Amino acid sequence: MPDTMVIHSVGILAAAASVASFAPQAWKTIAMRDVTGLSAPMYALTIAAFGLWTGYGALIQDWAIVIPNTICLALAGFIFVMVIVPQHMRDRIADTLEHETDA
Questions:
Q1: How far is CA 69 from CA 23, 47, 85, in A?
Q2: What is the pLDDT of residue 103?
Q3: Residue 79: exposure state from Cβ atoms within 10 A (0-12, 13-18, ≥19)
Q4: What's the pLDDT score for residue 2?
Q5: 8 A C-beta contact, residue 57 and residue 8
């Protein structure tokens, strides 16, 4: 059995990779306002998966599962919303977020 430090290190790396994989897509969606090629059903399934992982982590009281999956749930949820809303709403959301980050 690997030592506890190795196990926790793998968990931290997995969490960081999960969050890092969604953050650039969310920022690109804001900057480009283009969701061509992004699949609403795939993001819906991804949201369900992150929601279930978050619930699982909460049930076993493992914050190393809860925290990154909650962050990924929010990022995937944001991308999903941007995919399903019409362009004028996507522009308004992106404008608001760009304004908030400039402040």
A1: 13, 10, 24
A2: 60
A3: buried
A4: 79
A5: no
